Design the sequence.
């Protein structure tokens, strides 16, 4: 469970309403793969990831990024039950995908950077703080079923 | 932190250059060029952005405030601005000594390790908030490649800063 104040909830929901989920998801995932290249280990079937331009232009990266961000958005609607919301995704990432949960924190931080880039002045320290809580909550929930 | 990473020819050169502190990591020529170019662009405003990064760190990661109980941390505080400038000066020093960060930052490392006794995890939090600040102010410049170069630069700075700890 993530504890956001009423102001923080309003800030996060307000901003999320303006997020172009298609674009931001692909950008966040792409930047993760460029800035932290070891994360590419999970995407060997995605084709050309050989340089930044290839990664950012890769249609599978964009599609998967969109999927990931939509999922994040689900978390936003279920702040009181993140663990329940992400339970089956958590099992999937552990049992089938074998993803080190440390990488969820990395993606969360990359998402924060991408939102800062898109929203500029609107992405105040307070809004960032709220998103950091949300990102950490989602990362923790995704790691919850690991064994 | 502090592990030698073998990355081909660059690593051999880095190891040959390693000084009293043992294995050093050296940024690639491309990363160095990217960081220097950005720093030229930031010019005299580095302090503005490091101050904002500090403010963001205090808001997003409240535990970091425990090191600043003696300062006024309210937004706009002159004390935070002064500290932001100190951080800016240190980063500019780092940018001007990219080939020898451990030596350039050794005094700061000793200070943070032995006098201030700051848990090094906090350096990463400030580094992240600096990236957020730069992305917010320079959206057009903040390409994935620049983000990667900056992230690597900051992790080298953090590694050098933590090198005196034990």
Sequence:
């Amino acid at each position: 469970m993530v504890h956001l104040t009423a102001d923080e909830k309003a800030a996060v929901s307000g901003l999320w309403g303006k997020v172009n989920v298609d674009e931001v998801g692909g950008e966040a995932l792409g930047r993760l793969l460029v800035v932290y290249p070891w994360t590419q280990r999970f995407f060997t079937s995605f084709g050309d990831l050989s340089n930044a331009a290839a990664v950012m232009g890769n249609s599978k990266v964009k599609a998967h990024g969109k999927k990931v961000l939509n999922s994040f958005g689900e978390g936003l609607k279920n702040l009181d039950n993140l663990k329940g919301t992400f339970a089956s995704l958590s099992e999937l990432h552990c049992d089938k995908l074998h993803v080190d949960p440390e990488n969820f924190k990395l993606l969360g931080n990359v998402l924060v950077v991408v939102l800062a880039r898109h929203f500029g002045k609107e992405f105040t320290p307070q809004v960032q703080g709220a998103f950091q809580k949300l990102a950490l909550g989602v990362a923790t929930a995704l790691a919850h079923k690991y064994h | 932190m502090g592990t030698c990473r073998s990355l081909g020819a660059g690593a051999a050169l880095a190891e040959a250059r390693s000084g009293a502190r043992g294995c050093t990591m050296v940024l690639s020529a491309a990363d160095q060029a990217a960081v220097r170019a950005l720093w030229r662009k930031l010019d005299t405003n580095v302090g503005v952005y490091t101050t904002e990064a500090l403010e963001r760190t205090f808001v997003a990661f409240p535990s970091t405030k425990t090191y600043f109980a003696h300062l006024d941390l309210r937004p706009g505080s002159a004390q935070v601005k002064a500290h932001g400038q100190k951080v800016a000066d240190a980063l500019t020093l780092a940018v001007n000594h990219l080939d020898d960060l451990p030596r350039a930052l050794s005094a700061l490392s000793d200070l943070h390790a032995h006098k201030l006794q700051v848990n090094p995890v906090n350096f990463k939090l400030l580094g992240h908030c600096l990236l957020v600040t730069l992305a917010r102010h320079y959206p057009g410049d903040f390409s994935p490649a620049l983000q990667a170069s900056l992230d690597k630069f900051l992790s080298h700075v953090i590694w050098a800063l933590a090198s005196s700890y034990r």
Observations:
- The mean pLDDT of chain A is 95.
